[in-house]
Amino acid sequence: MNKLVLSFFLVVIVGFVSCGEESKPTNDLAQEFMEPPQTSKPKTWFHAMSGNMTKEGLTKDLEAMAEVGIGGFLLFNVTQGIPNGPIKYNSPEHHEMIAHAAKEAERLGLSFGVHNCDGWSSSGGPWVTPEESMKMVVWSETVADGGNISINLKEPTKREGFYKDIAVLAYPALDSEIDDSNNMPVITASDAELDTALITDGKVDGESTLTAKKDQSPWIQFTYQRPKTIRAAKIIFKDRHSTAMLQTSADGKNFTDVRNLFKVRTGKGEWGINDHFEGVTSSYFRLKFNRSTTLKEVQLTANYFVNNPLGRTSIARTEDKDLALIGVPDGNMVIDPLEIKNLTGQMDANGLLQTELPPGRWTIMRFGYTSTGAFNNPASDEGRGLEVDKLSRPAFKKHYDAFLGQVVENTKALAPNALQYAEIDSYEMGGQNWTVGMDSIFKSEKGYDVITRLPVIAGRFVESAAASDAVLYDYRDVITNLMTKNYFQYFTELCNADGIQSYIEPYGFGPLNDLDIGGVTDIPMGEFWMNRPITQTESAVSGAHIYGKPIISAESFTSTPQINWKGHPAMAKTSGDLGWTYGINEFMFHRFAHQANPHVAPGMTMNRWGFHFDRTQTWWENAGAAWFKYIARGSHMLRQGVPVSDVLIYVGEGTPNSAYYRDDVSPAIPKSINFDNVNTDVLLNRIAIKEKELVLPEGTSYKLLLLQNSKTISLRTAKRILEIAKGGVPVFGETPQKLAGYAATAEERKAFGALIAELKPLVKKVSDWETVMENLGIKPDMELLNDAPLDYAHRKTATEDIYFFFNPDTVETKTFHAQFRVGNKIPELWNPMDGSITKQGVFTTENGRTGTHIQLDAGASIFVVFREDANTIMSATQHQQHLSLRLSEEHLLNATVVENGSYSVPLTSGDNWDFAVTDIPASQDISTNWEVTFNQEQGYGGTLPFDSLVDWSNHPLDSIKYYSGTASYKKQFHLSEAHTDDQTKVILDLGTVHIVAEVIVNGEKVGVSWMPPFRVDITDYVKSGENQIEILITNQWSNRLIGDERYPPNDGGYQLGPHRATDLTMPAWYTNNEPRPKGKRTTFTTAPFYKKDDPLMPSGLLGPITLKFSKTIAYKQ
User: Fold this and answer.
1) Which of 88, 185, 542, 1049 has its CA 20 to 30 A from that of 137?
2) Would you identify the CATH topology of the domain 643-776?
């Protein structure tokens, strides 16, 4: 008979150093949890700054990584204003350094990879010619009278000296175009130095700065000879924080606001406004800016453009779901496609058009393409160049071979097994919407000619608003598919051909379908920042889940200058824990700076950016090593089996697209329900319908499908959704309404209509998620009965269910009454801080769910693992205060008692376990009379008696007040035999610690405590009689850096440049690998974070320090 384990709750305190009886590992997973494999260790980005590289420094850096438990590194070369060293990017000397790093990595057992180009974004270099660079459609416009025409057509924008023609088209001029050509403005500006002719020439290959006067907003004024109706504004500019307001005036002097103009990002350092609106009529208009702005092009026009043409044509990234309606043009604003004439063959190479057109006014558009002008960033002068064409495989192959190909060849020859991966990091390069042969590619993909539809790319309406929208839908689809296949997928193919894997961050400011890209990379990579909401992991996580990729990496703990040298593992832990609940299972630290000169500390930085994850950190070898072990344990657990999620969100077919977060859907998905996103490819080709669930080949299953951004879809996708609904899978969300694309046949449209009529009643709306899940009979996977839902992760293997969650409150201990959707198995607590495993002694199992109480200290985390059958277990039925009840490896109940008294524990057998404890010793305070030694090598040596515990930063001696590093606290304490018998546990509670404590008892290392509460189990290290204790306390670099600011610099004239590349050179003493010049300062760092009067950081061991005792009692039948 199935035995129900009846109980109310068990409170298990999960701290940071285990104090209770541990169960010995019984299988490989438990063993690997205690000692994770090399492949589960965290990795780091390894930044060589501005050519400052030495073999000696590389060896020391990599040895330091290996020693503390870093599994591998990904080498970058970036600038960020750091003065230049002697190693030039892609030079023989540079490749010699990379090869040395590879050889050392192989010696040390570290995995090794490189970024694909100089800088962190994205794929470019000096070997990329303008013809091979990213391309964009450009055009010029001329309004001319019909008849015999001989006219020189203005060449459109020509960036980087490169331009090629696509086509010349003519159509009867729209009234608005005639108005623009006849009613030209006089243009003036608040800044007389602004080159108004340059910024209104219809091109974006020049620029001029509009400078603001003190306390005044700068403006550009358009004065027309007669009233003019303006319907659109176009502005291209370089300043990300600039905004523009359209104003009008009746007298040219007093202006009123009309509208803030909509801004989009078009490139790494370029933004655009291409806003349309209902007509505004006046003779006087102004564009008022909020600040000084560098302008490339400014235009006001009577034309009514399609809404957001920059986004709709893949120059800016506006996701399909965020595109506003294309607009409703008047009839005289629409071009008749039958009247468009292709005059391409009648223009010569110099732009002279000779042709004959019917009478009337004609608009002649000269279309071509040029470079987008995007450069890889932030790169050195030697590594900086145009971004390669993302839509062209031949162009990208040349880029790959120019650097990565050499790296592969050189490293494989010297260290065959070292190089294991390469990366495409942040995509920040903006859009691209043309490549060689684009017209043929488009016709092959979509079945119709794009050339005669080019006016739509220029923002005009052709045929109708609906037809124009459909053409642009198709156009974006072709662009995004080419980006996926010819850039990201091809990168992976080239890497794999060379025997390495690809890392890719599958998102960014460009025409990207994030989940598609996640599917074509070996290891998808998200990112999260310290102490910020997570907003850039879901594409990597869902992409990996739906394509069956086991490792999901993340650029981790990226930080702003406010963190600087103050950062330490305890400060970062909850950000990492949150990343785990979002599905990340590999941390790639941002960042480790290569310390080319090993004589200085804290040394090299990435200017002011990133978590200072460096071997020169004071905490590197103690808290660092402990934290990395914690990360390895957790990462390994979160790679087991498959993820468990109930909801599968379909992101739609419109492009570009990305993954949804729980708050992106309405109503928001509660944290008690986990979900993944799915794209069209997986919905069509990888997912099966089994027992009314959606199931992936790896075994991941989903209980319902949620349609998002699905009003417009293809016929094949609509068929698949109907098949899913008819297969018994609940379908919710947005019912499809419109057939995607321009070229659908009448037969296809009829079939689509019939299919949607059948599908419509099968797609339900979500009123609220609790009701939906209840009606479907789906219980929450993890539910907190006494608290708001928490983010959590759940993995499932053939034999285990593995849950992870953490206490996000970093101040208060919290008790969680958790219910898990697992029945008849013993809940086990696996603590990643120390690798301990304990089996719960009190839990409930009912209706396929198991409940237990888990107490987590502030910021603590836990894995709850279900693997062993609970049907024959005798356990307690209710919790007793001052007891922790758990099961031994043999499934025998035991109790850890913290307070003397009599106890009666009800058992599932119907008996009571009655016992009394009277001999728990009283706590001992050992806070006084410590001998404290500060290290001479860290600048302020000496030994002092501390009669009481004090904060170093408040000490009267400057040598302690400004001390940074590790100090040793020593004393003796006495224990009797009653303190050390076999049943007694001895816990050392250190009270307040800033920031890390390593405990040594009787000459043996006990462990490192790096998170509050600072408690350490020292039972196995103490003895009756006198005991010697040493506590090594480490603080941050901050106080010493602040103290050094009191003295003049002794850095040989070091000077930090502005962000990005610089002409400055590192001082000779640094590049010669020598100690810094003599002086009072003992620190050197390449970026200033502190001033001499900045507040000091609390430091040292503040206590109170207490020995606490408990008894462990085993149940005997």
Assistant:
1) 185
2) Rossmann fold (3.40.50)
- HEC sequence for 1088-1100: CCCCCCCCCCCCE
Cα–Cα separations (whole angstroms), residue 892 to 43, 871, 876, 886: 41, 14, 11, 8
DSSP 828-866: EEEETTTTEEEEESS-EEETTEEEEEEEE-TT-EEEEEE
pLDDT of residue 17 exceeding 80, the answer is no
Q: Which of 644, 1041, 952 is nearest to 804 (CA)?
A: 644
The CATH code of the domain at 780-873 is 2.60.40.1180
Residue-level pLDDT at 5 = 29
pLDDT, position 2: 32
How many whole angstroms separate alpha carbon 29 and alpha carbon 70? 21
- The closest alpha carbon to 538, from 665, 661, 704, belongs to 661
Is residue 820 within 8 A of residue 803, CB to CB? The reply is: yes
Residue 1109: partners with Cβ closer than 8 Å, 6 or more residues away? 920, 921, 922, 923, 979, 984, 985, 986, 987
DSSP 989-1057: E-BEEESEEEEEETTEEEEEE-SSS-EEE-GGG--SEEEEEEEEEE--SHHHHHHHTTS---SSS----
Helix axes 55-68, 625-637, angle to 10 degrees: 60
For 872-1024, list the strands marked E by DSSP: 883-887, 893-897, 901-906, 912-917, 924-925, 930-934, 942-946, 966-975, 984-989, 992-994, 996-1001, 1004-1009, 1015-1017
Q: Are strands 688-690 and 693-695 parallel, antiparallel or unpaired?
A: antiparallel
The angle at the Cα of 1061, spanning 1056 to 1067, to the nearest 5 degrees, equals 40
Domain 924-1045+1090-1110: give its CATH superfamily.
Galactose-binding domain-like (2.60.120.260)
So what's the pLDDT on residue 11? Answer: 39
- Cα separation, 837 vs 186, whole angstroms: 79
CA 976, CA 147: separation in Å to the nearest integer?
113
Residue pLDDT, tens place only, 121-177: 999 999 999 999 999 999 999 999 999 999 999 999 999 999 999 999 999 999 999
pLDDT in tens, 845-896: 889 999 998 999 999 999 999 999 998 898 888 877 889 999 999 999 999 9
pLDDT of 510 higher than 70? yes
CATH superfamily ID and name for 133-371: Galactose-binding domain-like (2.60.120.260)
Percentage of the chain beyond pLDDT 90 is: 93
Amino acid identity at 890:
E
At 793, list the tokens. Answer: 């992760």
**Residue 188, both tokens:** 């003036």
pLDDT mean across residues, the chain: 96
Q: Which amino acid is at 360?
A: G
Which of 3.30.70.890, 3.30.1540.10, 3.30.1070.10, 3.20.20.80 is the CATH number of 42-129+374-453+464-642?
3.20.20.80
Q: Is the Cβ–Cβ distance between 974 and 1026 less than 8 Å?
A: yes
Q: How many whole angstroms separate alpha carbon 1024 and alpha carbon 695?
A: 61
Q: Is 100 helix (H, G, I), strand (E, B) or coil?
A: helix
Asked if residue 59 lies in contact with residue 99, where contact means CB atoms within 8 angstroms, the answer is: no
Closest CA to 725 of 690, 692, 766: 692
Task: Compute CA distances 977 → 231, 851, 921, 926, whole Å.
Answer: 91, 40, 11, 18
